[in-house]
Structure formats: C-alpha cells, structure tokens
Amino acid sequence: MADTLQVSLWRGGSDGRYVDYAVPARESQTVLDVVTYVQRHLDATLSYRFACRVGMCGSCAMQVNGRARWTCRTHVSKVAEGGKLTVAPLENMPVIKDLAADMREFFGKWQRAKGRFAPSKTRNDPVEPIDPATPQRRAADAAIECINCGVCYASCDTVKWDKDYLGPAQLNRAWTLVNDVRDAGNRERLVAVSEGSGCHSCHSHQSCQEFCPVGLNPTRSIAGLKRKSLAAYLKGELKP
Amino acid sequence: MNVALYAWQRATAALMAPLVLVHLVVIFYAMGAGLSAAQMLARTRGSIAWGLFYGVFVAAVSVHAAIGVRTILIEWTPLPRRAIDGFAILFGLVLAVLGLRAVAAVVLP
Amino acid sequence: MSMLANRTRPLWFAAMIHRLSGLGLAIFLPFHFLVLGLAIRGEAQLDTFLRWTDQPLVKFSESALVGLLAVHMLGGLRLLALENMSWRGGQAVRALGLIAIAALVAVYFLVRVF
Questions:
Q1: CATH of the domain spanning B3-107, picked from 3.80.10, 1.20.1300, 1.10.8, 1.10.3470
Q2: The domain containing residue A15 runs over which residues?
Q3: Least CA distance to B13: which residue of chain C?
Q4: Considering only alpha carbons, which residue of chain C is nearest residue A17?
Q5: Mean pLDDT per 10-residue interval, chain B, length 109 residues
Q6: ipTM here
Q7: Neighbours of chain B (3+ CB pairs under 8 A)
Q8: What global pTM score does this model have?
Q9: Can you point out the beta strands (E) in chain A?
Q10: Could you tell me if residue A173 is inside a domain?
Q11: Do the Cβ atoms of A196 and B76 come within 8 Å?
C-alpha cells in the first residue's frame, strides 16, 4: 500500500476543474475521510455535504471514480485505482460548489411524482391495522427503505437524456404509496406518473438497481407503475 | 412518453413479435429457394392472406417506429418537443404510405 | 474524468443495441418499401434490383439487417416480459444471450446467402 493517495477533487461550479491533492493513506479509510482530510488540512474552502457518516442520512453521495456512491460507506481500498481517487459532485444535478450538488430538482420531482403521503384518516380515527403479509404491503415494504441519497438519480441515463424525467427514486417512492392502503392520493399520483417523462420513459437499464446502496430495485417498482397505470388507462380511468 | 404512447408502442411490439418471426422465415425461405422476382410475385399476387399479413405489419411498424424515433429525438437531440412530435407523425405517415404502397405492389393481381 | 460507471454495464450495452437496431431498421424501412414498390411497375424492375443485391457488400448488409431485426425483436420481448411479468433477476445474462442468438441468426443468414 502506497503512503499517499493521489486525490482529484472537483473544485468550483459547473465551469470548475479537478484539483489534485496528496492525502496520507491509512489502513482503514473511507472516501469521506479523504475528503474531510483535504478540508481540514489542505484547503478549508472545500465544500461538501455529509451528516451522519454511517449510511443513515443519505447526504454524502458523490461520484467516486465515475460511479455514484455513499462516500461514508465506501472504503478507499475497494475503489482506489492504483492509489488514485477522482471525486466529483453527483451527476445529473447542477453543481452548487465543489462536491456539493444542488438537489432542489431532485426533491421537486419527488413532489411532482406525488411522493407525499396523502392521509385518508385523521388523528381522531383509530389506528388502522396493516397486515404485513398482504401482497400490496409486501410490494410497498420491498421499496420503502429509500433515504433520498440521489445515487440512483445520478446513475440514470434516462434522467441525463430527458431533463423532465421524474427519476428512479421518485417513481420508486410513488410505487410504495400506490401500494399503501392508507393513502388517499393515488388517483392523482397515477396521473402524475403517467404523463410524458413519467414512469413510461424508463428504459430498464437497471443502473438504479445495481447502484442503490440499500439494495432497492427501482426498475421493478417502475415496472409496477407501468402495469398499474396501463391497466387504469385501458379501463378509461386515466386520460393522458 | 405518456401512458397512451406507451400502450401503443408496447401493443404494436407484442403484435409484431410473431409477425417478425414469420417474416424472418419468409426471408430465409425466399433466399434458400433462390426465388426470382417473378416467382415471388407469383406467390403473393392475389393472396388475401399475404395482403392482410403485411398490411397489419406495415400499420404496426409505422406506429411503433414513429414512437421509437420520437423517444430517441427527445433524448438525444436538443430539438423542441413540438418539432419532434411533428417529425414523428410525419415519419409514421411516410412509413404507412410507402409500406401500404409496397404491399399493394406485391399483392394486387 | 472516469467513464461513467453506469455506461459500462451489460444492460446499458443491451439497451444501446436495442435503440440503435431500432433506429437502423427505421432508417432502412422507407428504402425497403420503395424497392418493393418497384413491383408495381412490373417484375422486370424488381428483378434488376434483385440482381444488384447479389453483390457481396449488399449480402453483408442484408445479413446485418436480419441481425438488427432479430436483435430488436428478441430484446423487445425481454423488455415486454420484464415489464409485464413477475420480476426475474439475471436480466444481464438473458440480454447478452439474446444478443448472441441474434448474432447467430445473422451469421447463419450470411453463410446461407453465399
């Protein structure tokens, strides 16, 4: 193992460039450790985003050697190519500065896909018992663990090619709500995901599934949305 | 694409899968037998079955290809949506007209 | 900057093949229809064209077109199944297998035509 890592970090906005840093190599070191070292010891003006450092919060995702990853859960030893690391802000999002990507569009699409739970009851109603064994609840549970890190969104070429495409995380979220029997907003939700650049624009490249750090399968969720909305359309319940 | 375009594209795809298979068999047969134009036309002229088969095929492929080309143009060119929609419709119509003319040329006695 | 990792995956490659084969077929179809339309003016014209297709280069192109048709159909069937049937893993292996089958069909055509 070499004593130092050669690290290229993206600096500046969209018109920025890569700047090289030499960072001491450690036995056990994450990419987030490397970025933090640069900020603490080499250039305090480096901007990046993180919070929990343990894979819970979903704020530290970046492009590491061309692939979107959680930097806090990525060991340098697993991804460094010949002692070299290239770290950039997430793809498919505007750059705010350095390694921090602007996620406003990401969350805006979350709202456009009706990713917000629409309650069908009030606090005065009794808590509704939900059987975890029903097919609907299982479908929702299989897709529910998303923490909005943006890795799938940054890895999706349909997002890159169609700026209006809702995105894998957003459609995956919509699918969990479509399968939530307590939700009252599914009519509108199905309309929202069936418009142009909605679920039907997905080409099933499956990069979202392959790169999802929590092992979710948005492609599968989107296929579910395609079926559900197609059935509604054929029954005349959806008017595009 | 929206759900309506999706429905048309996937429906024509499903319809065409067996048609493509038959078409491939026809291609291999015609080539293997070394058929001349006269021999081919002798088999197709006046045949309602071939007329229907290729008529449906042309109609399906016109819809399918127009939607597919539209998607590619949306994703790979900076052209405005309206221009792309117009081009896709035009392309589908050209395919349908040329295709049905070809079917007529081969099938009409 | 490294190559984007999502563009080095088999399923991305398969999707490109599907798209480019479809585009190739879409460009070819108008010419295909125009040639068949020659029959409207009698078989002599069509026969002249068929003799033109005896050139080796044209035969190569024809087998390529057969390959495009086969690969687009097989890839499309995989997508229809993926979208409409219960989820199955191993899509990359399936996609590459179907591309290989289509390539074999094209090679078989080439062998037969010469």
A1: 1.20.1300
A2: 4-101
A3: C76
A4: C1
A5: 95 97 92 81 90 97 98 96 97 97 90
A6: 0.93
A7: A, C
A8: 0.93
A9: 4-11, 17-24, 61-64, 67-70, 84-88, 95-97, 100-101
A10: yes
A11: no
